[in-house]
Design goal:
There is one protein chain. This protein is α/β, with parallel strands linked by helices. It has one domain (7-139): Nucleotidyltransferase, domain 5 (2-Layer Sandwich). Helix content is 41%, strand content 24%. The chain has 4 helices and 5 strands; from the N terminus they run βββαβαβαα. It has helices at residues 41-54, 74-87, 102-113, 121-139; strands spanning 7-13, 17-23, 30-37, 57-64, 94-98. A 5-stranded mixed sheet has the order 3-2-1-4-5, sandwiched between helices. α3 (102-113) crosses α4 (121-139). It is globular, with a radius of gyration of 15 Å.
């Protein structure tokens, strides 16, 4: 019996890059997918909606950068504004997830794996997006489980 599931997309939205992660079709495992180099809102949103179409994404999880005390700062407000624009260009549900410390965790994972010595911040963003998405997948019951 084949179960029809859709993938989830994770986004780590920064000023220079958007880290993108994609779940497997069963919604169990998130993996870094790509980095979108920020240009302008329209171009960035088009790049995301193209990925959504190409991979049959059923939901988008956006990391919301909160301060350690839980408050929303300037970067969180930028993410919220961008996400509102994204919502107006897709019918796919978009949810926020607290992303505190995901970039720090991503950097630690990269160091622990001893990847390229000249690693770029952008790669950290894709891993951070995967950590955001994986946290969501781990906490969300999957249909049929």
């Amino acid at each position: 019996m084949e179960v029809n599931k859709t993938r989830s997309l994770g986004l780590d939205i920064g000023d220079k890059w958007i880290g993108v992660a994609l779940s497997d079709p069963q919604g169990l495992l998130a993996s870094p997918l790509t980095i979108i180099n920020r240009r302008d809102e329209t171009t960035d949103i088009t790049a995301i909606t193209d990925i959504v179409s190409q991979h049959q994404v059923g939901q988008i999880i956006v990391g919301l950068p909160r301060s350690m005390d839980g408050s929303l700062g300037q970067q969180a407000e930028k993410v919220k504004v961008f996400t509102q624009g994204l919502r107006s260009h897709t019918n796919v549900p978009v949810e926020f997830r607290d992303e505190r410390l995901t970039t720090v965790s991503a950097k630690r994972l990269m160091r622990a794996a001893e990847t390229k010595r000249n690693r770029r911040k952008a790669r950290d963003d894709a891993i951070a997006a995967a950590l955001i998405l994986q946290g969501y997948l781990d906490e969300t019951p999957q249909p049929g489980t």
